Write the structure tokens for this entry.
Amino acid sequence: MNDARTNPEFDALFDECLRDVLRGSRSIDDCAAAYPHYADDLRPALQAGILTARLKAPQMSAASVDLLEMRLRAQMQMQASSISEEKVIRPARWLPLSRAAAIFLIVFLASLGSGAGAVAASANAVPGDWLYGLKRLWEAIVLALTPLTGEADDLYLTIAERRLDEVEQLSQRGMLTDAALLDLYGATAQAITRADAQTAVEVTRFLSEMHTQIDAASTLNSGLRHDLLSVTTPLPLSDGRLQAPSITPPSLLVSTTAPTFTPSLTATSTVTPTATPSVTPTISPTPSATLTPTPRVPATATRTPTPSVTPTASVTPSITPSHTWTPLPLPTLPPQTPLTQATEQPGQNTGGNNGSSTTPDEQATVRVRETEQSVYLTQTAGPPPTEITP
Amino acid sequence: MDRAEEQRLLRQAQRGNADAFAALYHESVQVIFRYIAHRVNDHTLAEDLTADVFTRALESLGKYRDQGKPFIAWLYRIAHARVIDHYRRTGRRPSESDIDDEPIAVETDLDGGMLRRQAAKVLREAIAELTDDQQQVVILRFVEGYRIELVAEIMGKQPNAIKALQFRAMRSLASRLERSGYNLDSILAGFS
């Protein structure tokens, strides 16, 4: 009898026999006959395999599942409350601020009364929501303070992810606007140009997700879809950074009339903070009402560096943002060679890029449980285990 | 749930969306429970440890980053760590199974049912006595029905290593059953 204990060849043929036996395409005797030299090792191991596969899967009771869900929801609520009460508001993924910046923010938010809670609540706001202006104001503030922290790379990616989330939510509600798509375009371009060697991998993954979602969106006009897809295929540079593809103005011209985004926090006593932090010096403001076919980003650049806040009452602020944005040109990008092709980028999901609904991994995944279902004689107490696809 | 949907829910959950986290939770809670239940052989303990897994997952959710693996792989790592912690705290491995001993189900033959019920009990105990890696392979491969490649991805090993672990685990289980006096041919005969 061959010693199968440390034999990779045997391990492979055992796996092959096991699959066939569990599927029912071969019996244990068939396998033993096919590999007589290994029969003494194969037979009991295959028998144990069949018995193991037929063990009834224990299930957590529905009551326990529900009870645990309630506990987790309560935990999430407590976590959210403790963040708003104890710390400077930091939405997920925000970078740590210097002490001076943190003190400034504490003073600023305290002046808004329950503004800290409003900022936390605004994290999931989308264009059209009454808290959305506060959300964008918060982003502008944090961006403006990045010179103090010196860490802005991850921040642009986070902003781009938030824009993508908003597009998804608006799309689900049937309220997707061209302005939101242009915001996404601008934020993505920023994230690409700001990516360093360290964040390039995460940016590339984000671009892959964005590509999949834009590709699947059937309601976009072809020109805008093309522009959005084009920005998701950056070129890797030799130093590990990314180079955005040749950015041309988006095909869509957004026709609005009001020129300026004015985030105004108003309360019954008219609290109007005019915090106007400065941001990226590479963005040049264009505070005019002229409509230009340029991608828009929030008007975060038309600011004076000194924020001033004039609180007059401690009330819950109400946000009444206008719905339009000052059109700003994208930062000038260095000249670059035309994008030659859809070369696969690191981390990109080629299955998504090709427009197929599944990734190569998903396509390659064989649901063993489906094919082996016929040999399962056990009936689980609850529904069958959920199929897991990578 | 596909990867794109999973990542979307994760991003929302990281921003405090309780419903998004609840969706991820319902997608994976039974999978994690089964994994722990097979490893600790104690239903109540398995529920407690499952709760612990998701509590810790929620606490660490802000730090989770997509590394190209499914979310369940991250949960499995937490579950594995919780089980190991439990072993260290209690200083022992489970020996007596109190998992609801439904037999390795057979549709007829009441006499054989008792035999198979006992065999199932011994089998669960034997699984709990395998090495950590062998236990993981048995649960992921035989209980959850994952392909070798996915098991390898979850465990951070090569597929060939998974195949080797798989055979050694089955050989150990067969040996344990036979030492306990069970005739595998007789038990399996009831299924034909």
Q: What stands out?
A: Chain A touches chain B through 76 residues (CB under 8 Å). Residues 252-327, 336-356, 363-382 of chain A have pLDDT under 50 and may be disordered.
